[in-house]
Amino acid sequence: MYDKKNLSRLKTVESNAPEAIKAFWAFDKAAMAAGAIPSKYKELMALAVAFTTQCPYCIEIHSNKAREAGSSDQEIAEVVAIAAALRAGAAITHGTHAFKES
After folding, report:
1. What is the pLDDT of residues 7-21, one digit of tens each?
2. Full-prediction pTM beyond 0.85?
3. Of 2, 29, 41, 77, which is the most buried if we count CB atoms within 10 A?
C-alpha cells in the first residue's frame, strides 16, 4: 500500500476539495513553523507521532526534515524509544479496561 508515488495523487484530492486542502496546507505550515518551539524540536515531535501512528510517509518526510534541522542519529533513536514507550504505556493503561470492578 505504501508507495511514495501515491503522493502524486494529492493533486486529485486537492482538485476535488481545493478549499479544504488549501486550509490544511496553511495550517500544517503554521503548526510546523518555528515559534516558542524551534523547528528541530517540532520535527522530532512530528517524528515521534509518525512512529506512533506508523505512517511511513510521515516517517520519511519528518526524519529528513529533522536531519535538515540538525537532529542527530542519537536524537532520532531516542525519539524511537519515546514513541515505543508511549505505545507500550497506552497498551498497559488501556489493559485496565479489560477488568471489571469488583
Report:
1. 999 999 999 999 999
2. yes
3. 41
